[in-house]
Design goal:
Length: about 450
């Protein structure tokens, strides 16, 4: 038994060493972010100092994303830009490491004997896409349109790359099968309206808007059309009608018949575009499947999403006494998160199978040694070390909505859902972007004339 206990001690020591790099081994990630979410919901502006201190660790991408989002919500766009840049560098470094590495999914699974929290965080594709989109918002608010365009173009490239990657991985892993896990995947798939995690109408709409503001209507038309195909939205459809007419597109008559004639800016008017984000994406939960192998207890713990609350109602927007708009959803971010988990589940199963096999081998070793107490010790260690990976970017919104209209130039009080936000200036012939974020009871509003 002494040798077995030494082996267990080595495993525990390895766990402790790994914990220095990834904090989620000991504290589930949602618990680490709960305080920040509560503060954001109450309108408090606490700098993400303790998160930024962890950016150099194995979960650095995740902490950089969270810190960037929190700084952004606090209105510190320069600081947020630095955090997002750190996340982007880490993603690019991980791409390089993957390119030169000879490892594959099975080898990766064999290297993790504890649980998936020991793996460096790399994030699902939709998170990486949103890093670039939110970095573009930082550049916009800082008055750098060229920098914003670079970021949204990169977001578009990543959507195409993620689509190709998913097709490849799905073909390789579709043979993986497990009854309980398959049932959970089916439940998750039915709970999501999104068809994939990597096609985000919100990102395409943002790219289209920036292309249009930069005098690139053809590129704007292409991205608006992609957005409309992914997530139908009457404001995007009106943009397509308007651009199809101004560009002399043959689709103009078809679009006009389907969606009606589009309004255009009149002399003395400006354009107001409202992007409204609400709530937080849900945190992952753990579900465990206990079973016996050769008479010894094993536990498989997997991440999932519990039943989710309904989205908030479409925002009612009032500008002055004459302009009334009702926002429409452009993307359900929580649906993207659910789909990302479903898409990742086959790879999680590969690692889980390798881990269960490795743990079963330690139990059988104890049996061959007739070491009943050692076998019990290993059973206990295997059970307590099995934890689902609950890491995800938790300060993202649950849903994004948009609205837009043409308004006579002037300064007006803005109200969203009957809450007075701030005074908005509309300039003739220009676009005023209003970015509103509702977290709990607190509403933040940032605006920029472009």
């Amino acid at each position: 038994m002494s040798q077995l206990l030494r082996n267990i001690s080595y495993l525990v020591f390895a766990l402790l060493l790994t914990g220095c790099a990834t904090n989620s081994l000991f504290m589930p990630y949602p618990a680490q972010l709960q305080g920040y979410q509560q503060q954001l919901s109450q309108g408090q502006s606490k700098p993400p100092t303790d998160l930024s201190a962890k950016i150099n660790g194995e979960d650095g991408i995740l902490y950089a994303q969270e810190a960037g989002r929190i700084a952004q919500l606090n209105g510190d766009f320069e600081q947020s830009k630095g955090y997002y840049a750190a996340a982007i560098r880490a993603y690019n470094s991980a791409d390089f490491d993957a390119t030169i590495s000879a490892s594959n999914l099975t080898a990766n699974a064999s290297s993790v004997l504890l649980n998936d929290n020991a793996l460096p965080y790399r994030g699902p594709g939709f998170e990486r896409i949103l890093v670039h989109q939110y970095q573009a918002f930082n550049y916009l608010m800082l008055g750098d349109m060229e920098g914003a365009l670079v970021e949204v173009r990169r977001a578009n490239e990543l959507q195409q790359m993620e689509q190709a990657r998913y097709r490849k991985n799905n073909a390789e892993l579709q043979a993986m099968e497990n009854g309980a896990v398959t049932a959970e995947m089916n439940r998750l798939s039915k709970s999501s309206k999104a068809t994939s995690s990597f096609l985000n109408a919100y990102s395409y709409y943002t790219t289209g808007l920036l292309h249009e503001l930069s005098g690139e209507p053809n590129d704007a038309y292409i991205d608006y059309r992609k957005a409309a195909q992914i997530y139908p939205n009457r404001y995007v459809e009106q943009e397509l009608v308007r651009l199809a007419r101004s560009l002399g597109m043959q689709q103009y008559e078809e679009f006009k018949q389907k969606w009606g004639e589009a309004k255009t800016m009149q002399a003395g008017q400006g354009r107001m575009v409202v992007i409204y984000e609400t709530g937080f994406v849900p945190a992952k939960k753990e579900f465990s499947v206990p079973f016996r192998i050769d008479g010894m207890w094993q536990t498989a713990s997997m991440p999932t999403y519990a039943n989710r609350n309904k989205h908030a109602a479409s925002a009612n927007i009032a500008l002055g006494s004459n302009t009334r708009l009702q926002a429409q959803p452009i993307s359900d971010i929580d649906d993207l998160a659910v789909n990302a988990l479903v898409e990742e589940m086959p790879a999680i199963l590969v690692r889980q199978a390798a881990r269960v096999y490795a743990k079963a081998e330690t139990n059988q070793w104890a049996q061959r040694k007739n070491d009943s107490w050692g076998g019990v010790a290993m059973e206990i260690f295997n059970i307590i070390s099995e934890r689902a990976d609950l890491r995800s970017w938790l300060t993202l919104p649950s849903q994004a909505q948009i609205a837009q209209g043409y308004v006579e130039a002037g300064s007006y009080p803005l109200q969203i859902n009957a809450k007075l936000a701030e005074t908005i200036e509309i300039k003739s012939g220009q676009t005023t972007l209003v970015w509103a974020i509702q977290t709990g009871s607190h509403l933040r509003v940032f605006s920029k004339t472009l």
